[in-house]
Amino acid sequence: MHEKYGDFVRTGPREISINRASAVATVYGSQSPCTKSPWYSHVSDDKTKTSLNSTRDPDVHRRRRKAWDRGFSIKALATYEPSVYSKVNVLASQIRARLNKPIDMSTWTMFLAFDVMGLVGFSEDFHQLEDGIEQAAIKELHQQMLFLGILKPSPWILTIIGAIQGLVGDYGQFMTVCTDRVADKKKKWAVQTEEVGEKVPKDVISWLLKAIEEKDPNAPPGNQALNEDCRLMMIAGSDTTGVTLAHAFYYLAKNPSKYKLLQKELDNAVGTNPDQFTNDKLKDLPYLEAVINETLRLKPAVPSGQPRLTPPEGLQIDEVWIPGDTIIVLPQYVLQRDERHFPSGSEFIPERWLDEKKNLVKNDEAFFPFQQGRYGCVGKQLALMELRAVIARLAYDFDLAFAPGEDGVSFDADSMDTFTFTIGSLNLVFTDRTRE
């Protein structure tokens, strides 16, 4: 669309898609006058009944974000790290039990992502990795994400459907699971034995409950808001990570020479002792970070971008003035593949993030996989911890290739933009690592 019509394309009566890197900070930056679009009101316009992500009032969002930030602080992340690595160990064990046999990597990365978020979110393990079975509520969530994506341009339809009992279909199972988990966590938090000093939260929901207990003005403003926050955490913290991991292994299977370079870096970093894998260790490995960045560039978690509303006085972006109260969106999938910013933009080249001489990153302003500014992803560092841990462990332990009859073409071509990506099967074969 943008190749044919240019950087500014009117897609509706008051909607504009913008493919301009210079617009990123103007639209999404911390000083942006833009606010979230009406799409975010599909749950409710009542600020006491929406999640952090659906909160459109900038001041209310800023306050509520503070409570979430505590749940993803450096201290909190250190508490969650053992849960992440315990699940990575289970995934590695399950793959080892299936060596030399095709496995659907999309399924297993989703198992891991939701299991981790259950532990990090409210200290509950879904055991999907151990059982090899997707829970019914999570299965229905994936089916409903397709529905959400189709109706993204018409949020008013989502509002009507959500208000009519029975029309949400089996998504109600997922809503009930989240509500029940919050209720159970409330009881446990209330009776938790106090040790020295105050109670110490061990998961994200406990940090929000702590804020409520302390009557913190930044706390979720009601029970429904807390329940919606739980659903937000499960969807945003699981679906996106699972999809990104599947995409990473697709690109590594497609580019075996890149996989070998990654394995070499890991060997040099830890030798014969993979127990040295920690987030602090892995985050300093440049090629691993480059693989992750390149995956996120090619397959951003929210490919079509997040819609914003221009201020009443309008907005100037370079030579173009946009009227007030106009919905604008910057499609990340398009921007992050634009040859003006990333030469050979559709190719998987991790080295572009390492070698400035090759000049394969001409404008890093066009790279914003976790958004930025006040609405930037609160769970970014947890997501990166998971991506590093899984990719590093599996690359260190195993060689991989496409399964017989699989070339990844349909996996890549048939993935759907349903706000996040909806992906199909990716059949890979893992084998015992052959070390040179």
Automatic annotation (TrEMBL):
Membrane-spanning intervals of the chain: none
An example molecular function term from Gene Ontology annotations: heme binding
InterPro entries: Cyt_P450 (IPR001128), Cyt_P450_E_grp-I (IPR002401), Cyt_P450_sf (IPR036396), Cytochrome_P450_monoxygenase (IPR050121)
Region (Disordered) location: 39-60
Signal sequence bounds: none
Keywords: Heme, Iron, Membrane, Metal-binding, Monooxygenase, Oxidoreductase, Transmembrane, Transmembrane helix
Subcellular location: Membrane
Record's GO cellular component terms: membrane
Species this chain originates from: Penicillium malachiteum
Keyword Ion transport: no
Annotated metabolic or biological route of this protein: Secondary metabolite biosynthesis
Family that this chain belongs to: Belongs to the cytochrome P450 family.
Name of the featured protein: Cytochrome P450 monooxygenase poxM
Main location: membrane
Protein's GO biological process: mycotoxin biosynthetic process; verruculogen biosynthetic process
Cofactor: heme
Positions that bind heme: 377
Pfam families to which the protein is assigned, alphabetical: p450 (PF00067)
